[in-house]
Structure formats: C-alpha cells, structure tokens
Amino acid sequence: MSTAIQERDIPFLEKVKIASGLSDIYDARDITEVVFRVMRDLMTTEAADHVEQELHKPAEITDDKSLQMEIADLWHDTNPLVRFLSRVRPPWQGPGIFKIDSDRFLFRVANEGGMPPNVDREQVVKAVFAATKDELSSERIEEIASWLPDRVRQLWEEA
C-alpha cells in the first residue's frame, strides 16, 4: 500500500515524472527520495541541512499550512533509521568500501528506488536534479555539485 502523496508535492513530482519518462507519480516520489538519500550520503550533515533549509520554502505565504509546499519533506527519508543514520554518519567519500562513486550512486538509485526496467537511470537522476535545482540558490547548487562524483556531477550540471 502506497503512502498518499501530499498535494503540495505534486508540482515538483510532476516535473520529475515528465522529464524522467516515468509513468507514475508514485514512482517519481519513491525514486526522488532515493536520489535525495544517496545525495545526503555524500554530504556532511551541515551541507544537507543547508539544502533542506532552501527546500523548506512555502510556495505561498499563508497561515493555511495545507497550501504550503514543503519539498523539504521529500528530502527527509521516510525510514526513521535511515533518517537517523544520515545525520550521525560521516560523508561516504574517500577510500574504503563505503565510497560512493558515480557507478554506486546510479546503482543505488536504480535498485533502492524500484526503478521500472524501461527507464534510463541517468535520465531519472537528471530529472530529479533539474526539479531540485529549480528550488535552490546558485550558492546551494554549487555546494551540492562539490559533493558529487564525476559522472553524477556532470548530470547535475547538465540538468
């Protein structure tokens, strides 16, 4: 049973769905969450918090919380254990088995996100990146780029 998608997240997820070639908005949400998870795994907690602060912007200034868009909700992991671990572990870079290079990044997105077999994983990642960049300042866009490995950074810059 899928968790309902918040109405405030639909415009962002529609961008991802259309640009990625996904046929279902639930797939767009699930894969976006995984892309964000792997991105957070590459960053320090401080850098991830900077991104969250910029994604935590209401689409409308209003007292009616149901009208506020919180893309930051997608930045958080729905799995409480993963959410906790992403706050306490160091970035997964450098030597060792936990290093996330471009191949591992794309592998994790394809496998942890339940990506349909007929969809190109790079196209999906680029779609999430493009929708995300639309929400961020140029300073944050550059900061994120600095954390991404070679091919994934290229996808970020092309998005």
Per-chain topology:
Elements: H1 10-20, H2 25-42, H3 45-55, H4 72-75, H5 80-88, H6 102-112, H7 121-133, H8 138-147, H9 150-158
Helix pairs in contact: 1-2, 1-7, 2-6, 6-9, 7-9
Keywords summarizing the entry:
159 residues; mainly alpha; Globin-like; globular
Notes on the structure:
60% of the residues lie in helices and 0% in strands. It contains nine helices and no strands. The model is unreliable at 58-62 and 64-69 (pLDDT under 50). The protein has one domain: Uncharacterized conserved protein DUF2267 (Globin-like), CATH 1.10.490. The chain is an all-alpha fold and 159 residues long. It has helices spanning 10-20, 25-42, 45-55, 72-75, 80-88, 102-112, 121-133, 138-147, 150-158.
CATH homologous superfamily - what is it? Answer: Uncharacterized conserved protein DUF2267
Question: What is the first-to-last residue Cα distance?
Answer: 32 Å
Please bin the fraction of helical residues: 55-70%
Q: CATH class, anyone? A: Mainly Alpha
H and E order: HHHHHHHHH
Radius of gyration: 15 Å
What sort of overall outline do the alpha carbons produce when their principal axes are compared? Answer: globular
Low-confidence stretches: 58-62, 64-69
How many domains make up the coordinates? 1
CATH fold naming? Globin-like
Short description:
The chain has 159 residues and is mainly α. The protein contains nine helices and no strands. The N and C termini lie far apart (32 Å).
